[in-house]
Each structure stands twice: as structure tokens, then as C-alpha cells.
Amino acid sequence: MYTMVKKPVLLVIAHGSRDPRHAATVHALVRRVRALRPDVRVETGFLDFNIPSAQGVLESLAAEGVRDVVALPLLLTRAFHAKADIPAVLRDAPAQLRILQAEVLGPSPLLLSALERRLYEAGLTPADKSSTGVVLASAGSTDPEAIAVIAEIAREWRHTGWCAVRPAFASASLPRTEDAVRELRSLGCAKVAVAPYVLAPGFLPDRIARGAGEADVLADVLGPAPEVARVLLARYEAARMPLPAAVGA
Predict the structure, then answer these.
(1) pLDDT band for position 79 (50/70/90)?
(2) CA–CA separation, 210 vs 149, rounded Å?
(3) Average of pLDDT values for 18-40?
(4) Across residues 33-39, what is the average pLDDT?
(5) What does DSSP say about strands 68-73 and 98-101: parallel, antiparallel, or unpaired?
(6) Concatenated DSSP letters for 98-164?
(7) Do 247 and 5 contact (CB within 8 A), yes or no?
(8) How far from each other are the two terminal CA atoms of the chain, in whole angstroms?
(9) Is residue 246 within 8 Å of 4, Cβ to Cβ?
């Protein structure tokens, strides 16, 4: 006789923000994930500013007797938070928890699909692609790996039919969104659109929006797009694979 082991709890770890829109967007995304996978317990924790804290959630899970947890960084690139902050939280978790850290969400073709969804929701159509230049605007990072990933995503996205795609950064790196908008104008693109490669509203996304003042189209943040939820679950499944599927009895 075999008894199936319970699926590990999925703990989504978000950065947190003083901006209430951030937490509201994270919770909306988690609700979509729960709707897609009602067989998986999904919890949310924050590194800073919001409650519950990721550390507090881990302690609560341990107190309940939970054994296995997949900790998923709600991040688009492997920068400081994924490499340092989240591993530090997991190292301080109760010893009885067996925790696997999932990969960050990006890069993924599904996220490119989500970016295009947001652009079309903002008013573009597929017929506009060949004449529209797009600014792929991210939060920015001092981590060279994260910057290189954004640049590579822009190169790959260009090959799907856009007039041109340029990366831009709200902090730490250059160019800024407004500079990338002007560059695309100088290239002769009939329209210029800004696609924020960020998950939730906040200080840096607002800076991206201000930098898009001369663009024709400004898309919304990725937020709880269905493609984002699907990527999140794919990362969860990949992380939990080392865990046993069943035990003999």
C-alpha cells in the first residue's frame, strides 16, 4: 500500500513596499495561483514593509507540523534579493522544515506573452508591431547578471516582430526610460510604447511611468496576469521534483 505524500507548501516571498498597491497586487496574483492549483497550499510572506513576514510564515508552518516548503522568490531576475536576502531568511527558518528555493520567475517566454498582453490592453494591436518600438523598462539593479538578462530579453523580444526593443532601468543602471523613448523616436519608429517589466506598482514603477511621458503607449505592470501565475507554478513544480512522490506503507 502506498500513501501519497502531501505536496509541499508553496511560500511566495515578495519584497514588500510602503505602497499599498504592491501588497494588493501580490495578493491578487496569489489568488490566481490558488485558483489554478487548488490542490496546493499557497502562502505569502514579505521581506520588508508588509505583513506577514516570510520568517513569520515559516515559523507558523513549522508550528503546524508542516515538513516541506518550496520558497519562491517573487522576482524577475536573480539579483541581490534572490542571492542574499531570501537565502538568509531560509537559513534562519525552523530546523524541522525542509525548504527548497525555487528559481526566480524570469526569463520566460510566458512573461513576454504577458508583456504583450499588457501592451495590447493599453491600446496597441498586433498590426502595430512592425512600426512600434518598445522600451522594456525594469526596476534596475547593480548586479551585472540581472542587467545582462534584461538586455538579452530585449534582444529576444525584438525578433518577435517589433520595430525595435530597448532595455531601460528605473535605478542603478542606464539608460533611463525617457532616454530609451527618445532613442526609439530617433530610429524612426512610428510609435513608441513602454512595457514595465515589473510585477507590482510602487516607487520605481512610478518612475518608469514618469519616464514614459513622451511615449505613445504605457502598459500596466505585469501584476496578476495569467501568464505570470503559470510561470510561478512552473517554478514550483521544477523546485519540488527532488521530493519523493510517495512512501511505502
Answers:
(1) confident
(2) 24
(3) 98
(4) 98
(5) parallel
(6) EEEEPPPS-S-HHHHHHHHHHHHHTT--GGGGGGEEEEEEE---S-HHHHHHHHHHHHHHHTTT-SE
(7) yes
(8) 5
(9) yes
Residue type, 16: G
DSSP state of 190: S
Q: Residue 168's closest CA among 199, 189, 147, 142? A: 147
Quick one: which of 193, 41, 189, 56 has its CA closest to 117? 193
All three cell numbers of 223, joined, read 501584476
Mean pLDDT, the chain, whole residue set: 94
Helices 20-36, 226-240: axis angle to 10 degrees equals: 70
User: Taking Cα atoms as reference points, which of 244, 189, 249 lies closest to residue 215?
Assistant: 189
CA angle in degrees (0–180, nearest 5) for 156-157-160: 105
What is the rounded CA–CA span in Å between residue 93 and residue 73? 15
Residues 132-156 pLDDT 10s: 999 999 999 999 999 999 999 999 9
Q: Please list the residues that pair with 53 across neighbouring strands.
A: 46
- According to DSSP, the residues that pair with 4 across neighbouring strands are 246
Q: How many other CB atoms are found less than 10 A from the CB of residue 213?
A: 11
Q: Amino acid identity, residue 133?
A: G
User: Following DSSP, what letter does each residue of 9-43 receive, concatenated?
Assistant: EEEEEE---SSHHHHHHHHHHHHHHHHH-TTS-EE
